Automatic annotation (TrEMBL):
This is Gamma-glutamyl-hercynylcysteine sulfoxide hydrolase. Keywords: Glutamine amidotransferase, Hydrolase, Transferase. It comes from Streptomyces spectabilis. It holds the Pfam family GATase_4. It catalyses: gamma-L-glutamyl-hercynylcysteine S-oxide + H2O = S-(hercyn-2-yl)-L-cysteine S-oxide + L-glutamate. Its EC number is 3.5.1.118. Catalyzes the hydrolysis of the gamma-glutamyl amide bond of hercynyl-gamma-L-glutamyl-L-cysteine sulfoxide to produce hercynylcysteine sulfoxide, a step in the biosynthesis pathway of ergothioneine. The gene is egtC. HAMAP family: EgtC.
Length: 251
């Protein structure tokens, strides 16, 4: 469920990343090619980006489908950034959270997205939620599994863990508490990308002199796209990509 994308590299128009490619995130909202769970991503979308000289990202999020938002089409035409994280949300049962449940989630200099689902939600994560400070729980943007997973990642980041370690440790912890959970996560600080492949597809495209994209699926047919194996952590800058196997929790 859901489709998402992160980019770091030379400044590019949002439209060049999210709208113009033949199989862009916009098209993936109704016609994904590799989505294993769900069929249409129409329950909200969002994009976050970084401006030169400002480490805190801006966000644009809506509760409706990306294809019907003319304001986003105009914004994508003119906004340029060297670091972007965007997502379209799978159609789900009705809820009260609306826009607040649409990725990317944000705090400080970080942007985060979750493609997947936590099995046994919410009971399966109750023990992990109990370990968070009450203020973190009261500050959740939405009452969904993605928001709580983000709170768990944030707690690690604020303890000083690097992006990749914070994602990897959270995925293993959540997978142990909720066997069968799908936990494809994206995280960026505007300079690097950390991502996990855990239960759904993840691909990356590294173009010398331009930058690196990590995405649920390729947005075009460039032969340089590479699929990330399941249960793998990706760490990427605009020039380098490192893949590391993730340890599976005990059965």
């Amino acid at each position: 469920m859901c489709r998402h994308l992160a980019y770091v590299g030379a400044p590019a128009h949002l439209g060049a990343l999210l709208v113009e490619p033949a199989h862009s995130l916009l098209r993936q909202s109704w016609a994904p090619r590799h989505q294993r769970h769900g069929t249409v991503n129409a329950d909200g979308f969002g994009v976050g980006w970084y401006a030169d000289g400002d480490p805190v990202p801006a966000r644009y999020r809506r509760a409706g489908p990306i294809w019907g938002d003319q304001s986003f089409a105009d914004l994508a035409r003119v906004v340029r950034s060297g670091a972007v994280l965007a997502a379209v949300r799978d159609a789900t049962v009705a809820g009260a959270d609306g826009e607040a449940a649409a990725a990317p989630f944000a705090a400080d200099r970080w942007l985060f997205s979750h493609n997947g689902a936590v099995s046994g939600w919410p009971g399966s994560l109750a023990p992990l939620a109990a370990g968070l400070p009450p203020t973190d729980l009261l500050s959740l943007e939405a009452r969904c599994d993605s928001a709580l997973v983000w709170a768990l990642v944030q707690a690690r980041l604020r303890r000083g863990e690097p992006l990749s370690q914070a994602l990897a440790d959270t995925v293993v912890e959540v997978a142990e508490a909720a066997p069968g959970a799908r936990l494809n996560l994206l995280l960026t600080d505007g300079t690097t990308i950390a991502a996990t492949a855990w239960g759904d597809t993840l691909w990356y495209l590294a173009v010398p002199g331009r930058g690196t994209v990590a995405a649920s699926e390729p947005y075009d047919d460039d032969p340089r796209w590479r699929e990330v194996p399941d249960h793998t952590l990706l760490h990427a800058s605009r020039t380098d990509v490192l893949l590391t196997p993730l340890k599976e929790p005990p059965a």
